[in-house]
Amino acid sequence: MTTSTFSHRPPRTWLKVFFSVPNSLAESAAAFLAELSDSGVELISDTAQPNDQPLEKIIGYLPTNDNTADLLRQIRDYLGSMQKSYPQWSTLDVHTEPVIEEDWGITWKKYFKPTKITSRLVVKPSWEEYTPEPDDAVLEIDPGMAFGTGLHASTCLALEIIDQLYQGPLPQPQSVLDVGTGTGILAMACVLFGAGQVIAIDNDPDAVAAAQGNISRNNLDAIATASAKDLAAINETFDLVIANITHDTIIELAPLLKRSLNIAGNLILSGILQGEQEKNICLELAAIGLSVNDSRYQEEWFAGRFTLKR
Q1: DSSP annotation of 83
Q2: Domain ranges for the chain
């Protein structure tokens, strides 16, 4: 079984970024940081409450590279503009601290508990015990350094659409392609719901290792595989294509995603912010012959199911 620990490279270093904002501004600030960091964020209540107003602490993680300083500048500029609109708040400062790769897993373990994501899908970490109900479909996940535990709204939305698709009146998708698989959670859910062939791809070696490890941990190797294969190199078509990735990457890959669909196939997209990003994605896909048939929203996130126009 492939493990999620690599011996051929040193541990990566991340920069933990956190700041507190008024409760009323938390969603927009979290959406900004999620888009900037290209990852999930945490929102927790801040104990400090100046002016008797509740604060939310926004926490995200930036990779340390040549772009880190520019990303921090953008965060400070964003908070600075927010400060001008709310001069009574003196707490809109950004704070940072380094986090090495080993500490990342510890952070996940503090927040990742067995969770029922849909009416029948339960996601549990490998280090937690869970006694399933009779109708539960249980996935055991070890996120490692990959994204996608089912706790983030974008993953949850995609799982809801997948679950409904397999329970609805349409033919159940038998062949599935999961683009940007992360931990493999969406790919594995399709197997549990009835898929007969699932291909999961990701360009991050950490994600491929985590996904393949999770596939093996759940005894799904006979149906699901994970690899770093490029989407452009996949010439098959599928009943279902899933991409829980960023807005810009979806736009870039849109023609290839369409090419991967069977005539009657479904494309599920998530990782998209409501509003401008949602509108842009729908317009871009409409221009290449895809229409949205199911729209879901949670917090600031949008996910949709698209099919070829007929």
Answers
A1: H
A2: 13-106, 112-308
Going by C-alpha positions, the residue among 306, 305, 301 that lies closest to residue 152 is 301
Answer yes or no: are the C-beta atoms of 208 and 216 closer than 8 Å.
no
Helix, strand, coil distribution of the chain in percent, nearest 5 = 35, 30, 35
List the CATH code of the domain at 112-308. 3.40.50.150
Distance separating alpha carbons of residues 26 and 300, to the nearest angstrom? 11
CA distance 205 to 211: 10
Q: Which of 135, 194, 134 is nearest to 162 (CA)?
A: 194
pLDDT tens digits, 201-234 = 999 888 898 899 999 999 999 999 999 999 999 9
pLDDT tens per residue across span 138-162: 999 876 655 556 677 888 999 999 9
Nearest 10 degrees: CA dihedral of 15, 21, 23, 28?
A: -70
Residue at 253: amino acid letter = L
Per DSSP, 195 falls in state: -
How big is the chain, counted in residues?
Answer: 310
Q: Do domains 13-106 and 112-308 have the same CATH topology?
A: no
Class of domain 13-106: alpha beta
The structure's pTM equals 0.70
Which residues are CB-contacts of 177 (< 8 A; sequence separation ≥ 6)? 198, 199, 201, 234, 236, 238, 240, 241, 242, 260
